[in-house]
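Model: You mentioned two targets. I'll fold them one after the other.
Researcher: Yes, keep them separate.
Model: Target one:
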Amino acid sequence: MTISGNGYLKKMRGVTSTPPRVSLSEIVWSWMGAFLGISAVAYLNYVILDGSDMNLMLGSFGASAVLVYGAIKSPLAQPRNLIGGHVFSGFIGVASYKLFHPCMWMAAAIAVATALALMHITKTLHPPGGATALIAVIGGEKVHNLGFLYPIMPAGLGAIIMLVVALLVNNIPKTRKYPEFWI
C-alpha cells in the first residue's frame, strides 16, 4: 500500500467551509458563562480551600468552559459528557499512574488512550477528559496524594460547579437552551 495523492492524502482536503460567525450576543453569553464558571471553581479553590491540601482547579476545566458555555449544542458539552468525561477519565488516570508510574511515558499514554476508549464506551466523550486523565499522571505530589479521591474532587466536583453555572447562564437568553439532553 502506498500513500498517494489519490487516496490517503485526498481525504485530508476537507469537504466543507468554515462555519459562520456567531452573533455578538452569543459571544457575550459565552464569555459570561466562562467567566462565572471558572470564577466559581477558582473562588472555591483559592478562597475556601487555600491553605488546605485540596485543589479544585484543573487545567482541563478551561477546555470544558469553552464547550459548556461556547458550544452548548455540541454533544460533547452536555451534562452526561461533562461529568462522566471528567470522572471516568480521572479514575483511569489515577489507575494508570498507580500501575505504570515507574514508566511515566507509558502511564501517560495509557491514561489518555484508555480514558478515550472508556468515554466512547460510556457515551460520555468530553475532550477535556483526556487532559483530566493526563493530569492524574503528570500532576505533582499534591495530585498524586489524592489517589482515587481525584476523580471525585477536583474532577467531579469542579465539573458539577461548572454545570450548575451552565444551567443558570445558558438559559437566561431566549436564544439559548441548555442542555440538549441529560442521559
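Model: Target two:
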Amino acid sequence: MSSHAHVVGWGKYVPQRVLKNGELSELVDTSDEWIRTRTGIRERHLAEDGETTASMAFQAARQALEVAQLSPAQVDLIIVATATPDHLFPSTACLVQDMIGATRAAAFDLSAGCTGFIYGLSVAANMLSSGAYQTALVIGAETLSSITDWTDRSTCVLFGDGAGAVVIQMGENKGGVLAATLGSDGSGGDILWLPAGGSRMPTSQQTIDQRLHFIHMKGREVFRFAVKVIHEATCEVLQKAGYALSDLTLLIPHQANQRIIEAAARSLNLPLEMVYSNVEWYGNTSAASIPIALSEAVEKGRIQTGDLVVCVGFGAGLTWGAVAIRWTRPHSVPVSLSRRALRRLHYSLARFRSRLRRLLRGLFVIWIKNGWNGDQRRHE
C-alpha cells in the first residue's frame, strides 16, 4: 500500500502588539479609509522587543506539535520558510530545532519570498515520500517590520509579523498532500526586492543612507502578476491531482491584498465564500500568511475531513506555487491537562538545556582565552 504525507498538526502565532491604520496616519500621509479601500487591511501585528522570527516560529511549532500530539523527538525534519531570518547563519530552522528540543531533526531554511511556505511544504512532502523521513515540521515565519520602510506609505501599510506551522507525517490512508506545482521567473526579480545586505551590495554607510535595506516594490506589476499566477497555479495543481475546479472546497491564497484575492476569485469564477481571507486583521505576513490562514480556517471549522483544499502563493523571485491537499485530519482531540503539562515541561527543559549549552560554551571560550593569555604571560 502506498504512503502519503498528511497534515496532522497546525499552529500559528502573532505578536500581541497591534498597529491599526489610524496609528499609521500619524507616521505617513495616509488614512484608515485610504488603506482599507486599496488593500482591505485594518490592522497588523508587529513583533515586540525581544521577539524574532525564530521565537515566533517556535511558538507556532509548539502549537502544531500539540495538535498533532507528537513530541519534538519524533520530528526528523524542520524547514523554515522566511525572508527575514534571525541571522544569515546559523539558519532559523536550526535555532527552532534547538528551542523545541528536536534532537533527531535535520533543519534548514528556505528562501522563496511569500511563496516560501508552499515551496517548503512541497519539498517536505517529497522528502517524506522518498522514505528518508517520517515526520516533518514546516514553518513560515516573518519579522517584516524589521525590513519595512516606515516612511514609505506605499509599503508600510501592507506588512505584518507572525508565524504559522504544520506537521506532516507519512500515513497509509488516502489523501493528504496530493500534488504540488512550483514556478519562478527571475527576470521579475526587481519587481519585489530588498536591494542591499547581500554579497552584491554589502552593508555600507551609503546603502544605509539610501535606505536600500528596506522592501522595494512595484505595486501594479505585483498585482497583475499575482492574479495571473493564482489562476494558473490553482488550475494546474488541481489537474495534477486529478480534480477539476468544481471539486474544490476551499482556496487559501497568500494574504497580500484583498483586491488581489477578489480579482483572483473572479478570474477563477469562485464565490468569495470559497476563498479564505484574513488579510484584514494581519496584513501581508509573507511566508507566514498561508500557514496562519490554514490554521485559522481549521480552527473556525472552514475545513473538514474529506475537504479538497488548495493553498496558492506568489512572491519575490518572482516565485509562485500551489499545493492540493485532501484533508484527512479532524480537529484536534482535546489533550488532557497532564499530557499538556508534560509537553510544556519538555519544552521548558529543552529551552533550559539550550541556554545551559550556550552558557557552557561561553564559559569554555572565556577559559580558553584566559588560559591562552596566561600561557603567553608565563612564556614572557
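Researcher: Noted. Anything on target two?
Model: The CA atoms of residues 54 and 92 lie 6 Å apart.
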